[in-house]
Design goal:
single chain, 264 residues, alpha+beta, OB fold (Dihydrolipoamide Acetyltransferase, E2P), 19% strand
Length: 264
């Protein structure tokens, strides 16, 4: 009987001690919050960061210019006018690849100094063209930009899948403050109206360059022009990582329209 009473006493004592021991609380469950969403910034809107000093942006980046649009200076009277008697309806047709391959004129390094107000004289070349001639060519329209001098800067290439290795063609501002030739102004206005209405949703092109999501195939007519100012410039020409393949341009452009796509 005594052993039974002793066991019962031990059992009661153990239960009493357990009741007095405080319960340990479990840690609160972690709260899972969604990471903040960020919208991707476009190269045009992305400012230079501390690791990307201004002036050393990658080719796809651009800080939009806030400079006022003003009339240009370099060979301005040449690239905003046409020789007397020019007729866009009788322009010479050339392939864009052949035009890109056109050799530089003699003494190209001196052309910017020697021919500020006059056109470069004729010289022997495979296309038998000279500065001032009107030519028509076709290509894929990749980019349109508004330049600080008021020109529409246009990049076209021979490829429907890449805007690199492109040709630059430009159409001046038809305002009399920018262009002294009254007969050319309607031509320039028509080209700019075409670009805004058919490729830019009635908007002005970006200062950094409006890139075509689906490049159209276009026919372009313009004056053969050697942009001699860039002969010694080590910086590659062309915007949005699309590099110009030649210093030759069509400038000014006097006609542009959509063209049937070439057969594969």
């Amino acid at each position: 009987m005594k052993p039974l009473l002793a066991a019962l006493a031990i059992l009661l004592l153990t239960g009493s001690l357990a009741a007095q021991e405080p319960k340990k609380s479990l840690p609160a469950p972690e709260k899972h919050t969604k990471a903040p969403t960020t919208s991707p910034s476009t190269p045009e809107a992305q400012p230079a960061s501390a690791s990307t000093p201004a002036g050393k942006l990658s080719c796809g980046q651009c800080i939009p210019s806030n400079k006022p649009i003003v009339k240009g200076v370099d060979r301005w009277s040449v690239k905003t006018s046409l020789p007397s008697g020019s007729d866009p309806a009788h322009a010479k047709t050339v392939a864009i690849a052949d035009f890109i391959a056109l050799v530089d004129p003699p003494a190209a390094n001196e052309a910017d100094k020697l021919f500020q107000q006059t056109r470069i004289p004729p010289f022997n070349n495979s296309l038998n063209v000279k500065e001032g001639d009107l030519v028509t060519l076709k290509g894929w329209l990749w980019l349109v930009a508004l330049e600080n001098d008021g020109d529409y800067h246009i990049q076209i290439s021979a490829s429907p899948t890449s805007g690199d290795h492109c040709l630059i063609v430009e159409v001046p501002n038809p305002d009399p403050a920018f262009e002294a030739s009254p007969e050319s102004r309607p031509l320039f206005q028509a080209v700019r109206d075409f670009l805004r209405a058919r490729t830019l949703n009635q908007q002005e092109p970006s200062r950094c360059g409006s890139v075509m999501q689906h490049p159209p195939y276009v026919q372009v007519t313009g004056q053969v022009f050697f942009d001699a100012h860039h002969v010694a410039d080590p910086k590659p020409r062309g915007k949005k990582c699309m590099h110009a393949a030649t210093i030759w341009e069509l400038h000014p452009v006097v006609d542009m329209k959509f063209a049937p796509k070439p057969k594969p």
